[in-house]
Sequence to fold (503 residues):
Amino acid sequence: MNAEVEALPFGETERDFSAIDKVRVVEALSRVLPAGTLMYETEDLRPYECDGLAAYRALPLVVALPTTEAQVVDVLRICHELGVPVVARGAGTGLSGGALPHTRGVLLSLARFNRILELDPLARTAVVQPGVRNLAISEAAAPHGLYYAPDPSSQIACSIGGNVAENAGGVHCLKYGLTVHNLLRVRGVTIEGEIVEIGSGALDSPGYDLLALVTGSEGMLVVVTEVTVKLVPKPQLAQCVLAAFDDVVRAGDAVARIIAAGIIPAGLEMMDQPATAAVEEFVRAGYPLDAKAILLCEADGTPEEVAEEIARVRAVLEDSGATEIRVSRDEAERLRFWAGRKAAFPAAGRLSPDYYCMDGTIPRKRLGEMLTAIQTMEATYGLRCMNVFHAGDGNLHPLILFDANQPDELERAEAFGAEILELSVALGGTITGEHGVGLEKINQMCAQFTTAEVRQFFRVKAAFDPPGLLNPGKAIPTLNRCAEYGRMKVSKGHVPYPDIPRF
Fold:
């Protein structure tokens, strides 16, 4: 890292972009973008004011909709010259405010980059643009007996570029991995307009593993323009086991015991009673409504492999105190079991005017402890919570139900969520599993990481984005923010008694 990058004042305070001239930005971008691909009137900007976390809204200065990589290069070069922040956006299905626009910046939409450029069934790879929908890849690969493994619940709408930015997972990521485990190459553009390729078509690349660094970087390092993904063969057979428990702690313990037995299911999900009741009303999946918690455990592979794994899972579940065990009898029933799980979010929307979806990760053996704590928090904050977990890897998705039209309910929901995240850290976990930090969890970054670690994050960002223009104010908290979150007053970048160590 050169001395110039090292000397940058990254990480102390938020940058001030108030002096940016909108007219100048529009004029400059109009020279490189075709008609109809640049929007700057308020009514045209409104559809871009938030991502899937609709509680946080902001209007961008302008919206650019390039159709070619060359146009992306031109937009970024202009923004670099003018010192204008850039926020890249895909389908806008993210749940952490990662694609929330900057009020003095350009929102760079990649929605028109929606083509599958190449599909090689022999190499089992596909080259796609970032605006391609997650599910569209599997649909294109299906005639070859292949599919793309990461399957977030929003896969019918979410785009690959966003999946790369957030390192998205899904219900089958326990066995098949997250986005980072299913990529070979990412092509992107730096803030200076330089095209870079990270990774390759080979199984490994020399030097630092920058592919793992860029995946999950939340649009803070490069703007992705092309992705090479791995495809996997469709299994011959898949069966799903549904197990009911009369106690959430027993259900959590069962998850840990399945993994401890050396079983890695294709999917291992957990839902508490409020969640199962909500989805049963919504999709009629056949869930037992009297159970305090249910587990969904899927085995896939050859018929012989599936039969053996199902028998082992059943034995563990019986030994763990399951009150009911069902095995899907056909593909339709298997899909119905999973339809209920994937409908948890819309089902929550039927129960409450608003809901706040959290995302944290804890050790599997502490799932029961977390659920018990959440029940206590419900009483503390006066709000209901539905719990849906990627239990196999300890990834929590509590759904906090609230009504934003009622005084202070949003604030209580945010405080509820913050306590869940900070407890996740205290239990030995982390504040996010797959939704990213964005703006939603930026304060909790202060609880998880030390000052030295935060500074190192900013050094990495500076190596890719020296002026700090790509998605500023997201994911990495400034040290002043951490100080204020710790209830210390910071005014205009100055702190009282600066000789006293604070960070």
User: Anything to note?
Assistant: The domain at 116-233 is CATH 3.30.465.10 (Uridine Diphospho-n-acetylenolpyruvylglucosamine Reductase; domain 3). The longest strand covers residues 237-245.
